[in-house]
């Protein structure tokens, strides 16, 4: 076990500042030179692990203005929790001493749109492995749909807000991580780990905090949820 070197709040503040630099165009591009590369050749000690969607517009180190050795990054389409994801995050927290996990969603997510398609009465065909992998996104789509449409369980893509479904899926992803790992749950309970769910806005580059657990004080937490029905907030 490696104890965290910083508090969850300190790790979050670094990430928030980095995103603010990216948004304003004031990037410092830290830790991207040969000196840093050499410093890291014997080991890594990142303070933040990031689990996000694979979308190419969501490059982790770029949007948080970080560099080599700063982030332990795990990504797949639609940030779907799987055993390999839980194992990687447990390694990041228990062995590398990460104090913060960021779960990174974004608006206009193709995985969420595909899950909406799968929730209609006539889904378009998609590769079997993709359809299977996206199953964990369907409960979020269904919850958002049924909150306002009780006449049919089949989703009309024209009548559902995909970004709202994405926020619900993000909240459920954070919940699933906690349910999937005693190591992560105990680290949060001990005050050593924070988990923040963020929805990234593709147009202006801002990360919007949607949910958080652990010892964290985050500005605007859940502000976007206020647009949603109370039934969708946690
Ligand atoms: Zn996505």
Quick take:
With 234 residues, the protein is of the alpha/beta class. Helix content is 39%, strand content 14%.
Task: Write up this protein.
- This protein has 234 residues and is α/β, with parallel strands linked by helices.
- It has one domain: Beta-carbonic Anhydrase, Chain A, CATH 3.40.1050.10.
- Helices cover 39% and strands 14% of the residues.
- It has 9 helices and 5 strands, in the order ααβαβαβαααααββ.
- A 5-stranded mixed β-sheet has the order 2-1-3-4-5, with helices on both faces.
- Strand 4 and strand 5 form a beta hairpin.
- Helix 7 crosses helix 8.
- The model has no long low-confidence stretch (mean pLDDT 96).
- Zinc ion binds next to helix 5.
Distance between the termini: 31 Å
Q: What is the ordering of alpha helices and beta strands?
A: HHEHEHEHHHHHEE
Instruction: Tell me the count of domains.
Output: 1
- Across the major sheet, the strand order is 2-1-3-4-5
Instruction: Please indicate the percent range of residues in DSSP E strands (runs of 2 or more).
Output: 5-15%
Uncertain segments of ≥5 residues (pLDDT<50)?
none
Number of E-type strands: 5
Bound molecules: zinc ion
Helix content: 25-40%
* Rounded mean pLDDT score: 96
Shape: globular
- Can you identify the CATH class? Alpha Beta
Q: What is the fourth-level CATH superfamily?
A: Carbonic anhydrase
Stated plainly, the CATH topology is called Beta-carbonic Anhydrase, Chain A
Task: Please state the second-level CATH architecture.
Answer: 3-Layer(aba) Sandwich
Number of distinct helices: 9
């Amino acid at each position: 076990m490696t104890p965290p070197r910083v508090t969850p709040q300190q790790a979050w503040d670094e990430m928030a500042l980095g995103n603010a630099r990216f948004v304003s165009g004031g990037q410092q591009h830290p830790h991207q030179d040969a000196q840093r590369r050499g410093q890291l050749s014997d080991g890594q000690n990142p303070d933040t692990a990031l689990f996000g969607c694979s979308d190419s517009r969501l490059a982790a180190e770029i949007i948080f203005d970080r560099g080599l050795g700063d982030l332990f990054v795990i990504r797949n389409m639609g940030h779907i929790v799987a055993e390999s994801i839980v194992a990687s995050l447990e390694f990041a927290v228990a062995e590398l001493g990460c104090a913060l996990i960021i779960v990174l969603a974004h608006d206009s997510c193709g995985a969420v749109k595909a899950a909406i398609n799968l929730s209609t009465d006539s889904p378009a065909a998609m590769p079997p492995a993709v359809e299977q992998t996206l199953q964990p996104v369907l409960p979020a789509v269904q919850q958002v749909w049924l909150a306002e449409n009780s006449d049919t369980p089949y989703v009309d893509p024209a009548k559902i807000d995909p970004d709202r479904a994405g926020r619900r899926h993000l909240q459920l992803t954070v919940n699933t991580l906690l349910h999937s790992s005693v190591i992560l749950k105990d680290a949060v309970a001990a005050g050593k780990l924070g988990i923040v769910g963020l929805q990234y806005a593709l147009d202006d580059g801002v990360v919007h905090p949607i949910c958080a657990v652990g010892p964290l004080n985050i500005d605007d937490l859940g502000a976007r949820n206020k647009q949603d029905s109370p039934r969708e907030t946690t």
